[in-house]
Design a protein that fits this description.
Layout: E1 9-14, H1 19-30, E2 35-42, H2 46-56, E3 60-63, H3 66-78, E4 84-86, H4 91-97, E5 103-106, H5 114-122, E6 126-129, H6 133-149, E7 152-155, H7 158-166, H8 174-177, E8 178-185, H9 203-206, H10 216-224, H11 226-239, E9 246-250, E10 256-262, E11 267-271, H12 277-285, H13 320-325, H14 331-347, H15 356-366, H16 375-395
Parallel strand pairs: 1-2, 1-5, 2-3, 3-4, 5-6, 6-7, 8-9
Antiparallel strand pairs: 8-10, 10-11
Helix pairs in contact: 1-12, 2-3, 4-5, 5-6, 6-11, 6-14, 10-14, 14-15, 14-16, 15-16
């Protein structure tokens, strides 16, 4: 019998039409006694957001541009829906920090998610972080906002959720207990492909992930393993470990989502089917557990679990995680901006797959960060890095 005494959480879902947002709403729909949708946001998918508003009846909706917001408002009115569309330039920050919001699912891809994540952190929300760029770009500025605002930060990336689930609930004891963190990686679609053939890779091939259903940008990052580089940076901030305490291992089956080795030599791992609804359900209900809708592991049919060392020839961008973490503050933000530009150029067929890494390297050499101390500083650094990356992408265009 369901526990009806648990107060319902009012949830804002940022990036509700993306893969993580859709999965979040699927979990929420399974537990109407626990969760209600307060607000939704999307970038350009008006019809998808309209359908979500019709089903979940949020109080507010926001879109990334005024024309898309106006179109959504018109369609909501035509369908007799009372959801209010916010059109101010800071609309997404508003729905992330509103006094009536309990929980914010931060699933906006890229640096665009930083401002609303900061707003939610400063407002002391329960923040479910699926936007790794908030930490890659924001770093200590973001973590300081979490501390000062009294926010509860819960990681949603499957790897970081796995680590979080393996650790004691009290973060104060983590430094004395953690020996190292092992992030697992699927290896993506090109794990066994010869490095010299990667120049011919198409966007369709790069987005065909063998295990996970994800958006196009993160699928390309998985193919280059840049997603794992960003996750190393994220883990450094989330768990307070040094870069040298983080390892990456390829685990093609995507059953072990990550591991923690403790100072006594013991190791804990979190296992599960490769379905984002598992970490999402964990974050929504934590410290309780609720049904996620995912299929269960069956060890009778699972087969072997294998592990490999990442190949530097296939995945040259992975080591940039440790290099940028040891560089001046702000360098990880430069890497993130460069990679977003390079991946966009590849998806637009303006840049070869094997030159994404070259754009990242050229941008890191061209842009010197100056210890950004505010959101404005970070946004200015992001803009400078994007300009340099665009110039590099043009030079390196196929």
């Amino acid at each position: 019998m369901k526990n009806l005494s648990v107060p319902r959480q009012r949830v804002t879902v940022l990036g509700s039409t993306g893969s993580v947002g859709v999965s979040t709403l699927d979990v929420i729909a399974r537990h109407p006694e626990r969760f209600e949708v307060f607000a939704l946001s999307a970038a350009t998918k008006v019809d998808e957001l309209l359908a979500q508003c019709a089903r979940f009846r949020p109080r507010f909706a926001a879109m990334a541009s005024a024309p898309h917001a106006a179109l959504l408002a018109e369609k909501l009115k035509q369908n007799g829906l009372e959801t209010r569309v916010l059109t101010a330039h800071d609309a997404i920050e508003t729905i992330a920090s509103d006094d009536d919001v309990d929980t914010v699912m931060a699933a906006i891809v890229g640096a665009a998610g930083l401002a609303p994540c900061l707003a939610a952190a400063r407002a002391g929300k329960r923040l479910l972080l699926a936007n790794k760029e908030a930490l890659v770009v924001g770093g200590e500025l973001f973590m300081d906002a979490v501390r000062r605002g009294g926010a509860t930060l819960l990681p949603i990336d499957s790897e970081h959720s796995a680590i979080f689930q393996c650790l004691p609930e009290d973060p104060a004891v983590w430094p004395d207990r953690i020996d190292k963190i092992v992030l697992t990686a699927s290896g993506g679609p090109f794990r066994q492909r010869e490095a010299h053939t990667l120049a011919a890779v198409t966007p369709e091939q790069a987005c065909a992930h063998p295990n996970w259903v994800m958006g196009r940008k993160i699928s390309v990052d998985s193919a280059t393993m840049m997603n794992k580089a960003l996750e190393v940076i994220e883990a450094r901030h989330l768990f307070g470990v040094s870069p040298d305490q983080i390892e990456v291992v390829i685990h093609p089956q995507s059953v072990i989502h990550s591991m923690v080795q403790f100072v006594d030599g013991s190791m804990l791992a979190q296992l599960g089917t490769p379905d984002m609804r598992v970490p999402i359900a964990c974050g929504l209900a934590w410290p309780a557990r609720v049904e996620s809708g995912t299929a269960r592991l069956d060890f009778r049919t699972l087969g072997a679990l294998t592990f490999e060392v990442p190949d530097a020839g296939r995945f040259p961008g992975l080591d940039l995680a440790w290099q940028t973490l040891r560089a001046p503050p702000g360098t990880t933000a430069v890497l993130n901006a460069a990679n977003e530009v390079a991946v966009a150029a590849f998806l637009d067929r303006r840049l070869r797959f094997d030159r994404i890494h070259a754009v990242n390297l050229e941008t890191l050499e061209a842009v010197a960060p100056s210890n950004p101390g505010s959101l404005a500083d970070l946004l200015a650094l992001d803009a400078s890095a994007r300009a340099a990356a665009n110039a590099a992408a043009i030079r390196l265009a196929a």
